[in-house]
Amino acid sequence: MGIFACPVCGATLRREETAYRCPQGHSYDLAKEGYVYLLPPNRKHSADPGDSREMVAARRRFLEAGHYAPFSDCLNRLAEDSLPQGRPVILDAGCGEGYYAGRLREHLLKRGAAPEQYGLDISKSAVRAAAKKYRGIMFAVGSIFGIPALSASADVLTDVFAPIVPREYARVLRPGGVLILAVPSQRHLYGLKEILYDEPYENEYRETEYPGFAFLRRVPVRGNITLNGAREIGDLFAMTPYFRKTPREGCERLARTQMLRTEIGFDFLLYRKVGE
Question: Which residues form the 23S rRNA (guanine(745)-N(1))-methyltransferase N-terminal domain (predicted)?
Answer without folding.
Answer: 4-46
